[in-house]
Q: What sequence folds into this?
């Protein structure tokens, strides 16, 4: 099955608490890798791996100015998750509608 | 960083198009493994791996009756994704509020 929209990479990027926390932090605005790394008790190379995974998924963009790499959240990319959930809810609602119609039919024919 | 709520497993389970499609199918109601596997051009053992990953994540429950294993969606578990998105939106809204307040302050002092 195809992965047209990059949903695989986005969900995979979010399957880690450090990366989810980075996304959460960036919700408050752009930040440097140094600032983002601060709360985590891991080495900078390990942290950079997480940053690269997030960048590869498209969830964040990074840009370097001098020695500072700044990360910015890409809201559009996170919409992939929201859209998928919305589609899932649509499927449930259709099911609920069908079940309701079935119950109403049974009541009418009683 | 801890993973108290099983979010890692849920996001990881969703990082695959076959597994997302199974979740989507189960949105219409419980189904047997055989029914669920039908649209996919993969072997049953490969498909069973996906089912087990989904079961381990708590997104689905399975039960066996005779030779038929039936899968049921666990809506509550999918709420982990929705709750995380909601929390993320709360962080953004706070930022937007701060930016708006800043703009208003600047206009007032102009």
A:
């Amino acid at each position: 099955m195809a992965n047209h929209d990059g949903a695989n990479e986005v969900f995979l990027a979010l399957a880690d608490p450090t990366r989810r926390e980075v996304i959460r932090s960036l919700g408050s605005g752009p930040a440097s890798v140094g600032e983002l790394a601060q709360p985590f008790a891991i080495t900078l190379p390990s942290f950079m791996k997480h940053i690269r995974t997030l960048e590869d998924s498209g969830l964040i963009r990074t840009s370097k100015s001098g020695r500072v790499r700044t990360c910015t959240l890409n809201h559009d990319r996170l919409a992939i998750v929201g859209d998928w959930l919305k589609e899932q809810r649509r499927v449930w609602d259709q099911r609920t509608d069908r079940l309701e119609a079935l119950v109403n039919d049974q009541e009418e024919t009683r």
